Amino acid sequence: GIRTPKDIQTFKRTNKKIYNELMKIRNRLERHYKDMQDFEFTIQEGKLYMLQTRTGKRTAQAAVKIAVDMCKENLITQKTAIERVEPEQIDRLLHPVFDPKEEKKKEPIAKGLPASPGAAYGEVVFTAEEAERRAKEGRDVILCRIETSPEDIGGMNVANGIVTSRGGMTSHAAVVARGMGKCCVVGAGQLEIDYKKKRFKVGSKTVNEGDWISINGHNGNVYMGRLSTVEPSLSGDFATLMKWADRFRRLGVRANADTPYDAEVAVKFGAEGIGLCRTEHMFFQGKRINLFREMILAEDAEGRRRALKKLLPIQRKDFEGIFKALKGRPCTIRLLDPPLHEFLPHDKTGQKEMSRLLGIPVSKIKNKVESLKEINPMLGHRGCRLGLIYPEISRMQVRAIIEAAIKVRKKGVKVLPEIMIPLVGHYKELKIAREEAEEVIQDIFKKEKTKIDYKIGTMIEIPRAAITDDEIARFADFFSFGTNDLTQMGCGFSRDDAGKFLPDYVKMGIYSNDPFQVLDQDGIGRLIKQAVELGRKSKKDIKFGICGEHGGEPKSVEFCHKVGLTYVSCSPFRVPIARLAAAQAAIKDKF
Amino acid sequence: GIRTPKDIQTFKRTNKKIYNELMKIRNRLERHYKDMQDFEFTIQEGKLYMLQTRTGKRTAQAAVKIAVDMCKENLITQKTAIERVEPEQIDRLLHPVFDPKEEKKKEPIAKGLPASPGAAYGEVVFTAEEAERRAKEGRDVILCRIETSPEDIGGMNVANGIVTSRGGMTSHAAVVARGMGKCCVVGAGQLEIDYKKKRFKVGSKTVNEGDWISINGHNGNVYMGRLSTVEPSLSGDFATLMKWADRFRRLGVRANADTPYDAEVAVKFGAEGIGLCRTEHMFFQGKRINLFREMILAEDAEGRRRALKKLLPIQRKDFEGIFKALKGRPCTIRLLDPPLHEFLPHDKTGQKEMSRLLGIPVSKIKNKVESLKEINPMLGHRGCRLGLIYPEISRMQVRAIIEAAIKVRKKGVKVLPEIMIPLVGHYKELKIAREEAEEVIQDIFKKEKTKIDYKIGTMIEIPRAAITDDEIARFADFFSFGTNDLTQMGCGFSRDDAGKFLPDYVKMGIYSNDPFQVLDQDGIGRLIKQAVELGRKSKKDIKFGICGEHGGEPKSVEFCHKVGLTYVSCSPFRVPIARLAAAQAAIKDKF
Ligand SMILES: [Mg+2]
Ligand SMILES: [Mg+2]
User: Fold this and answer.
1) Distance between CA atoms of A422 and A429, rounded to whole angstroms?
2) Who among B379, B471, B508 is closest to A493 (CB)?
3) Angle CA(A275)–CA(A280)–CA(A283) in degrees, nearest 5?
4) Per the residue annotation, which of B71, B95, B144, B172 is the catalytic one?
5) Residue of chain A whose Cα is closest to the Cα of B385
6) Distance, CA of B485 to CA of B295 (rounded, Å)
7) DSSP string of B560-575?
8) Count of structural domains within chain A
């Protein structure tokens, strides 16, 4: 526990007596605090004065090891061992890192914000399509963009890592990458990206498409060439600590996962199920986007149904994979959420390409894009408002979910689908949406001559829903707080725009944290607390989850425990963090 | 009380006996119901059967006259007289109408939605500038636009009426016109407006700039030529009924007014003060917009202060006029609210013109427009978020208000300024804004060697503010519910975009009314009720007003009475409606 051993060694030689006294005090302190200590002292007129002592700083790995070791040696209890490790710290243990010796020798060519932890290398590419093309050939790629948009999801998904020259910790790239548990560096402003010439310049260097780069999501560094990575180990001390944590926590932990692969990762990290499966991500990938666009461009319900019929088997297949990966764990699947215009290309090139692929005149596509334009899309035609105006979309999705569930169950795997209707503000929206869904489900049961258990519920993400969830509860089997939207509407902050004043707000102390990163307990938290009480007054045992990004943030997890939520749901890579934070909250609660 | 007198006359001749019997029953019914009756009967086998009776329909004028007459004849009490007139009905009495005989003979060339009542004629113009130019020469104009935007405010203000070919009852033109009490027809889709050629076509007709048209805001009709109008009379029976209403109501009624003229109209219509004076409307008019744009384009706080210094005397003058018109009635003045990009031209021509006028390169203007762009402006950088990031703006406005108040008071007129900080979500925002304002005010008091009474308060228009108004109350002298924004954020509806699904929602019965027109009592109303209780727990006597458009809607006024608000504030032309609705609510409450 001594910071500057060199000096101490000198000190030992020059002042043996005081050195021995110091060592005695150190041992006494460490026995007392039952932990490694950092302390300060001074010597005045030959007398030793102790100034300060505090628990020593250590790496995540050391923290876990020390806590588990001390517990095994009966120096501390399991509870204390759990309390000794900071949840946020273990994030580093869940992602690969670069070989530290190798990284030390390398000079970074640029530095951005460490938006999502991990270490990744690959050939640099500048478009999502190129990323997908090379990845299919089994090549490692790093997707490099000025900014990312929903159309890049496919490429982000297959890339080893993502780097952008613009955007902050809540930019699209950062949020999506964290959700994917994918290494990401954003806002590396030194990179002058030239899409046309397929290269970036940084200082005097030029990096062309296909050149190798390495990025470090722990510190934001970007390097030329390829650095070796060290994979995380989830066994050993880490696994032991997690086992202990699960023993104490009362809050469930689920994961947000949209693909069979994500579902597998989630289970590996200890998720008890999926709390949020976003079906729209399935529509962005590969050829599906064309079918989905065909649906949007259709003249009438009949035309939409024709396109949806082609999407049905694809979506069903997705759900089959997810149900298989989950092996009977519950799976909350959210019906289509984003506004339709997010699925259409807004630039000329994209519109021409779409026209060519679908055989629809460019002018018609342009008109559609124009007619779908919204001044405030966040408050626009999305969520259940889509399914209520175009019921055929919800019907297809419900059919895909239930048919997939029955298929998987027939193979002997347990299934538990939970259909989640997004963006409900009024109980009548859920009532109508539920009736529609039940009709489809009963129809399938009849045809398949079988039944399965299922649930239908909703997100609480519009303030009005939180205020009236006693009424909504009558039509819901479960609730899940969508704290991203609840924060947007509750605080009146557009997540996409708040960067213009929110950092200043935090500096001025108006909010103690960015409310999109750490739940605003005094405001949005109050609303949640009230909604939990109100909802349970109407339906005593209704389950409350949370599936915003806050579900993986330790302080917010503690809050969720305190207000009595049933579970939190977060990105797979944050599941262990949430498990640990939930255990700490439960332990804190008892004493 | 008989609908088809001709048939009845025949009937009298052919069946004298039953006719006499019918007349007897009629008299008995009208004595019983103390009101004119519409009834249905049938005659079977020589026997008279009465089927149904209900209070007869009548024009607004007749309704007021009958109620006042019957009361004067002691047939009904004042309370009953008040209950006999529907508040919404009297809207027709407050605006001019076309001479009914003349209108009957004319064929409308187009029909739109009756967005704001009244009858107006004038030379048709297609730009706000042309409207202002001709109005200055004392000419009557009708402003005709495809849609209107905030830049058209000046032209709308001077026009006799407004007609648009696009947009619904909540479009910009409709909302602003109602606020101005100005005749307006929107969504007259048959008009094919050609801005370049300065004309519109409708069917085979062409109407050029300068041609006379007449528009009827009561029924949405558009006519060629000029029809005579009949001015409303606010005296006589109408005045008597209003006097009685004021005797019974407990809810205060204020008006939303932005100019000395509006303030005068408001007082004439019986407003007890101004509940919302929107200072930004002052920045759109005439040359001021250039000074304001200079402020936005400034490089730093120093540059902004320079431009604001030039705006100070202009704004002070506005307030002087308003204070004089109010003669000591309270005046709630809201500091700058809309996002800055609303003040900049978004089209090339406008940007070039601005560049020429201000001597700023077009590229710089374009960059500024680009950098201020927001994805969800409704949830963006506006309201107090402006004043907190650019305190010099608030400081100028506070100075203008207080200096104007002192100036007017020195002339012997009482003043009561109430400074309203918009869009507060967190108590710390108000705390900081208040400290800034108090500093400016104390500085003025010192320099002027005098003091005046003033109040500082905030709007409750962000859900978070409603949820935490016990905390906010510690820094507020008054609260005013901004139900337009509270509905937007509380329900998650963008007012500008909701037209895509909200009409269907009303048809499906999800909402019983458009929540922007009639307050959503079950949702937003619940939030308001809770906020009133919470706020008063923290500060017993704090005043609660409402200044959304709901403040002039009878059902919503009744709700405001029930939850114990202090006052409602609405457009001047709706003040009598609110007074009557408030009286009815109080009477209903007692029995
Ligand atoms: Mg959401
Ligand atoms: Mg507002």
Assistant:
1) 10
2) B379
3) 140
4) B172
5) A501
6) 27
7) HHHTT-SEEEE-GGGH
8) 3
pLDDT, tens only, A407-438: 999 999 999 999 999 999 999 999 999 999 99
CB B164 within 8 A of CB B187: yes
Task: Please indicate, yes or no, whether residues A411 and A506 belong to a single structural domain of this protein.
Answer: yes
Cβ separation of B377 and A375 shorter than 8 Å? yes
Q: What is the pLDDT of residues A358-399, one digit of tens each?
A: 999 999 999 999 999 999 999 999 999 999 999 999 999 999
Q: Note whether residue B81 is domain-resident.
A: no
Q: Are B49 and B43 in contact (CB under 8 A)?
A: yes
Give me the interface pTM, i.e. the ipTM: 0.85
What is the distance between the alpha carbons of residues A116 and B361, in angstroms, rounded to a whole number?
41
Q: Are B200 and B192 in contact (CB under 8 A)?
A: yes
For residue B459, being part of any structural domain is answered with yes
Convert the pLDDT of each residue in B429-463 to its tens digit.
999 999 999 999 999 999 999 999 999 999 999 99
A170 with A257, same domain: the answer is no
User: Which residues in chain A have Cβ-Cβ distances shorter than 8 Å to B471?
Assistant: 522
Query: Of the bound ligands, which one is closest to the alpha carbon of residue A488?
Result: 1
* Yes or no, beta carbons of B489 and A492 under 8 Å apart: yes
Q: Name the phi and psi angles at B123, rounded to 5.
A: -75, 135
pLDDT for the residue numbered A6 = 55
- Whether B375 sits inside 8 A of A485 (CB atoms) is no
Beta-carbon-side half-sphere exposure of residue B31 (alpha carbons within 13 Å): 6
Domain match, A121 and A38 both: no
> Looking at the structure, do residues B224 and B271 belong to the same domain, yes or no?
no
Q: Domain range spanning residue B219?
A: 97-230
Q: Closest to A504 (Cβ–Cβ): which among B389, B426, B530?
A: B389
Last residue of a domain, one of A9, A27, A57: A57
What is the residue type of A559? F
> A214 pairs with which residues across the strands?
A121, A223
What lies within 8 Å, CB to CB, of A379 at 6+ separation is A489, B376, B378, B379, B488, B489, B492, B493, B494, B497, B498
Q: Is B550 a catalytic residue?
A: no
* Number of alpha carbons in the 13 Å side-chain half-sphere of residue B15: 14
B376·A381 Cβ contact <8 A: no
- DSSP annotation of A340: G
Is residue A172 annotated as a catalytic residue, yes or no? yes
